[in-house]
Structures are given as structure tokens and as C-alpha cells.
Amino acid sequence: MAQSFSMIPYLAVLTVFGLIQSASSLECFTCGVFLSAPERKCQGEATLVNCSLSDGPGCLFVSAKFDDGTFYVMKKCASKTEQYMKDGECADIQLESKDGTKISGSKCYCTGDQCNNSSIERLSLLALVLVLFTSLSNINILSARL
């Protein structure tokens, strides 16, 4: 009879470790301020930093589009002044362009690790892990039946 392999203890340990780590800090991407970005994203690579939960428990992504087609882009740790915002909330804001005219933009607040990343690479990694876990579970079920 084949021996069944259970991932549950390993997942429990990883979950507890993740909760302990996330209780003390929050990881946010930082970049900018970019006043003339060609796209609504950071120029080059955004930097991942640990933000103190006492400063403001969240991350921000601020952007606006100028009349010339360029973008204002900034990512950073949230401050205490953003604590009024809810997770996933975006607020309309007014920014000033290079020539002094006011433009409309948005400030988005989130509270999860690395949540102010506009890339979906991390979601792809999570999907890959879930597929791998499901495959291992199916192998265990099949080997238990044999």
C-alpha cells in the first residue's frame, strides 16, 4: 500500500509564519515621484520596503494623467493621514502640473503586503502554487486508492 503524503502540517506552519511576519510590518512598493512618466507605472524597478504599521497600516499608489499624455506616478507607504481610507479604496485628488494647472488624479489605498503593485506577476505565482497543491492532493488520492 502506498504511503499518503499530507501537505496540511506544512501549510499550517507556513500560514503561522506568514501571520507572525505580517503582524510586525507591511511590505509596500515605492517609486517616484515621476512627473512625466510615459506610462501609468514606475520608471524602472519599484523598490520593496518594509513599512511600519505604526506609521500608517497600508500602501499608496497615486497617479494622474497630464494633458501632454504623460503621467504623474508615485508609490509609497501610507501615512497616518490616509488611515481614513478603506482597503481597496481610491479617492479623487487634485494635482498641480508643471505649468501650475490643476489636474485630476487618484490615490488608492490598500493594506496587504505588496498590494500597491500594478503587476499581476504575484497573482500568477499564487495560481501556480494552488495548481501545484491541487496536483499533489490528486496524486495522494490516487495513490491511496491503489
Summed up, what is this model?
With 146 residues, this protein is α+β, with helices and mostly antiparallel strands.
- Which sequence of strands runs across the widest sheet? 2-1-4-3-6-5
Give the overall shape.
globular
Q: How does the major sheet shape up? A: 6 strands, antiparallel
| Number of distinct helices | 2
Query: Any idea what the radius of gyration is?
Result: 21 Å
Ends: how far apart? 7 Å
Mean pLDDT: 74
Structure class: alpha+beta
- Strand count: 6
Report the helical percentage.
Answer: 25-40%
Poorly predicted parts: 9-22, 119-132
Helix-strand pattern: HEEEEEEH
Protein name: Protein sleepless
Signal peptide: 1-25
InterPro entries: Sleep_regulator
Keywords: Signal
Descriptive notes:
Keywords: Signal. It comes from Plectus sambesii. This protein is an alpha+beta fold and 146 residues long. The protein has helices at 8-24, 121-145, and strands at residues 25-37, 47-52, 59-65, 71-77, 90-96, 102-110. The chain has two helices and six strands, in the order H-E-E-E-E-E-E-H. Strands 2-1-4-3-6-5 form a six-stranded antiparallel sheet. The longest helix is centred in the last third of the chain and has 25 residues, at 121-145.
